[in-house]
Design goal:
The chain has about 350 residues and is an all-beta fold. The protein has two domains: about 190 residues, Copper type II, ascorbate-dependent monooxygenase, N-terminal domain (Jelly Rolls), CATH 2.60.120; about 140 residues, Jelly Rolls (Sandwich). The protein contains no helices and 28 strands. Strands 2, 3, 4, 7, 11, 12, 15 and 16 form an eight-stranded mixed sheet that branches. A seven-stranded mixed sheet has the order 1-23-20-26-17-27-28, with no helix packed on it. A five-stranded antiparallel sheet has the order 9-6-13-8-10, with no helix packed on it.
Length: about 350
Amino acid sequence: MRSSAVVLATTFAACSSPPGPGIDPPGMQPDGGTIVVDGATTTDAAPTEPPPPTRGFRIASPDVPIYPGDEVTFCYYFQTPNTTELAVKKWASHMTPGSHHLIVFFTPTMLQRPGTMTATNCGFGSGGPVWTYSAQTADAATALPLDDGGGKPVAQPVKAGQYGFLQVHFLNATDAVIQAHVQLDAFAHDEGVQYTPAGPFVTFNDRINLAPGTPAAPTRGMVSGTCDFRSMAGGPYRFYAMSTHTHKQGVRAFVTDGSQMVLDNASWDHPLIRTWDMPFFTFPNSTLTYQCDYVNPNNRTIVTGNNADTDEMCMVVGYYFPAPGGIGHLCWDEGMVY
């Protein structure tokens, strides 16, 4: 067992200020988006470095100008170009300066035409998105376990022509305009490799309601929940990674298994991800308890929402196996949605 200082970006931020002049308005179809499969570029966008995966695919958002002081979130919609199902063994991403975080969501249907980049309805909760990968550093990578304990590798399945979107949070703290974009690479096992499917276990709490406060006398609040997945098929689930997510008012977020502390985070901006090696981590009672604590120094009520500047969130994001189809599980407050 080990703890890692790898950062798991879990920010479901929306726009905290309007985009500066020159940024495409919501719904525009920007040029320059790149989708590459097996080394072949499917658009006329300029190639990026390093080369795309030999087996897998690359998705890159187009450049957008981020003006000084701007903080904005866009979603870039895509359809993966693979014609057969892939077993992804590693995710890697690159973010240019001005990109704060990246989250990859898969969706069961097409929510927007591939190539659309928009700030409207951008984030969790619209169309049943499935959290797939995230990063909060310029260059990041996540390799899945090579052995599930029975000799098979662990991988995340990606269906042929999978729909999804990249949620990208841009922040320009400089005094110059920045052209920013992000890039995602999916590295897949060879065809025919037998693997154990992995998926995300995500909790979401919509009960946050923080009363107004002041910097001198901030108000305190918390939300918590217990997710009981004993009735869900496929257990026991073995977790190999887990983290938490809150916004700016979050001062602590933690996960327990009965009286055992599983994960304890004091940083909302750069939450740590805890990782486990074989035999991985299991919840003996198939219940996960979480709690998020807040301090609100603002003169307004803060509730659950996607806006990182004005709203709050309380989430746990873990990755486990076996997860047939890679869909994983979602626990809303304390109820298992799937």
